[in-house]
From TrEMBL:
Amino acids binding a 1,2-diacyl-sn-glycero-3-phospho-(1'-sn-glycerol): 135
Annotated coiled-coil segments of the chain: none
Record's keyword annotation contains Membrane: yes
Originating organism: Cohnella suwonensis
Pathway note: Protein modification; lipoprotein biosynthesis (diacylglyceryl transfer)
InterPro entries: Lgt (IPR001640)
The protein, known as: Phosphatidylglycerol--prolipoprotein diacylglyceryl transferase
Gene it is expressed from: lgt
Role description: Catalyzes the transfer of the diacylglyceryl group from phosphatidylglycerol to the sulfhydryl group of the N-terminal cysteine of a prolipoprotein, the first step in the formation of mature lipoproteins.
Transmembrane parts of this sequence: 20-37, 49-72, 92-109, 116-134, 178-196, 208-225, 267-285
Length: 336
């Protein structure tokens, strides 16, 4: 059956080509920026702060993501040096992007006089929405998909729209749309983070930890479906342990193919597990040791200037109540 596949090139003007992959990543970054700006208003941070953070952070993330990917695929790229910088064709790793973004973000945020964890808390939902949208770049490029499946599995069991099913037909073989699984997981996680950040029990840093826990749990299970995972050769006991953790999914999905010449451990799957354990332990230890006294809702203090949140951070209903009370008190104080 003939299907019309999407063209990865959105616009072509002479030698200049604009790829959908770049456009989609840009939309993800812009969406994340708008969410951060809106939340930043509650803490007295102006929009320019986040715009500059984005301008520094995105290039750092892309460079680190590419270096991370190339490092694990060096066996290929050492013979194809002309492809080292072709990021529009994919080949960037999210964990590498996070490393680059966090290094850049830490330096920038500290130089501006703010706590890194407090600002990272504000930006955590931005990371999820960026990943949620960015995964659709993989959809257009027909990459980051999972193992072979029947079309009926996608249409009748998962009820996936036809335009996605058709794009997952790669050279006559249908594949798991793992980009879609991860995008939907990020969408649910975004709602979870939005709810968490309005809860009084949330301490400083825990919104960021919650982001890593949520994303990494999803990534652990979704990564195992993929056929293009970055791999390394590890001990047999570690391979068995990771497979045992994933085994509850065996009743629905099959593990994606791994090239034995490249390794037997999926790098992203192992990192996901480490991050979950680390973040859960960090929350427990920080609370137990008394290091998590500051709450997410507390005013954000700039340690260079000593200033705190702007008045706009005060809820509107609280302001109106106070103003009404002041007027009543003023009325009763008037002489008769």
């Amino acid at each position: 059956m003939f299907t019309m596949l999407l063209d990865p090139v959105a616009i072509s003007i002479g030698p200049l080509t604009v790829h959908w992959y770049g456009i989609i990543l840009g939309l993800g970054a812009l969406s994340g920026l708008l969410i951060a700006i809106q939340e930043g208003k509650r803490f007295g941070i102006n929009a320019d702060f986040f715009l500059d953070l984005l301008l520094f952070g995105v290039p750092s993330a892309i460079i680190a993501a590419r270096l991370y990917y190339v490092a694990f695929k060096w066996g290929y790229y050492k013979d194809h040096l002309n492809e080292l910088f072709e990021v529009w064709n994919g080949g960037i790793a999210i964990y590498g992007a996070l490393i680059g973004a966090f290094i850049c973000g830490y330096i920038y945020i500290r130089r501006k006089g703010y706590s890194f964890l407090r600002v990272a808390d504000i930006c955590a939902p931005s990371l999820l929405i960026g990943q949620m949208i960015g995964r659709w770049g993989n959809f257009v490029n027909q990459e980051a998909y999972g193992g072979e499946v029947e079309r009926s599995f996608l249409s009748d069991k998962l009820h996936i729209p036809s335009f996605i099913i058709d794009q997952m037909n790669v050279e006559g073989i249908y594949h798991h749309p793992t980009f879609l699984y991860e995008s939907l997981w990020s969408l649910v996680g975004l709602a979870v983070l939005f709810i968490l950040r309005r809860r009084d029990f949330l301490r400083a840093g825990e919104q960021l930890f919650a982001y890593f826990i949520w994303y990494s749990i999803g990534r652990f299970f979704i990564e195992a479906l993929r056929t293009d995972s970055l791999l390394f050769k590890g001990p047999a006991w570690l391979e068995s342990f990771l497979n045992a953790l994933w085994s509850p999914m065996n009743s629905v999905f099959d593990l994606g193919y791994m090239n034995p010449d490249e390794g037997n451990i999926r790098v992203s799957q192992l990192l996901a597990l480490i991050l979950v354990v680390f973040c859960v332990a960090a929350i427990i230890v920080r609370r137990t040791m008394g290091f998590a006294k500051e709450r997410y809702k507390d005013p954000l203090v700039n340690f260079k200037t000593g200033s705190t949140a702007a008045p706009s951070a005060i809820p509107q209903d609280e302001t109106e109540t106070t103003s009404h009370a002041d007027k009543q008190e003023e009325h009763h104080d008037r002489p008769v």
